Amino acid sequence: MNFELCITINRPPSEVFTFLRDKDKYPQKEGSPVLVLDKTTPGPPGVGTCYREVVQMLPFYRGEILSEITHFLPNRCLEEDFKGAGMHGHLAYHFIPKRDGTNLIQRETIHYHGVLKLFEPVIRIVLFHRLQDRLKDIKAILESGFSW
């Protein structure tokens, strides 16, 4: 299952990159499928940094996802591999400078295993909308003047 989404955020690439790089430092929005998000390796984020997430995948399915940053080019590219909860995949963010901000491109590939494979058509629809909503939330937060 592959997704590619793009959104323009009226903030410089450095701010958008920092927000996604430090994803474990801000609270999740109410109703978010992410129930827990912890950085599990010490030090600043970079290649090799690992995270643990507990997510509500479907109303009846909660799982743990472990991820690791695999590509890290400040203000340009942030990628990670993830596995768990009956799936594995790859997530890539690309930060394209624009005159008034950043085009954020999200590419995600997910492979489901076992019982989840049976629900892939439903998961695709639900996940696509959640990914779109998440990018809109990131845009709203950053354009509102959010600061650490």
Poorly predicted runs of 5 or more residues: none
Count of distinct structural domains: 1
Strand arrangement in the largest pleated sheet? 1-7-6-5-4-3-2
State the order of secondary-structure elements, H for helix, E for strand.
EHEEEEEEHH
Q: Work out the radius of gyration.
A: 15 Å
Question: And the CATH topology?
Answer: Alpha-D-Glucose-1,6-Bisphosphate, Chain A, domain 4
Kindly report the name of the CATH homologous superfamily: START domain
Number of strands: 7
Q: What labels would you give this structure?
A:
alpha+beta; 25% helix; 148 residues
Could you characterize the architecture of this molecule?
With 148 residues, the protein is of the alpha+beta class. The chain has a single domain (2-143), classed as Alpha-D-Glucose-1,6-Bisphosphate, Chain A, domain 4 (2-Layer Sandwich), CATH 3.30.530. The chain is 25% helix and 46% strand. The chain is built from three helices and seven strands; from the N terminus they run βαββββββαα. It has helices at 13-21, 115-118, 120-143, and strands at 2-9, 34-39, 50-58, 61-73, 77-84, 87-98, 101-112. It has a seven-stranded antiparallel sheet with strand order 1-7-6-5-4-3-2. The longest helix is centred in the C-terminal third of the chain and has 24 residues, at 120-143. The protein starts with a strand and ends in a 5-residue tail after the last helix. The relative contact order is 0.23. The model has no long low-confidence stretch (mean pLDDT 91).
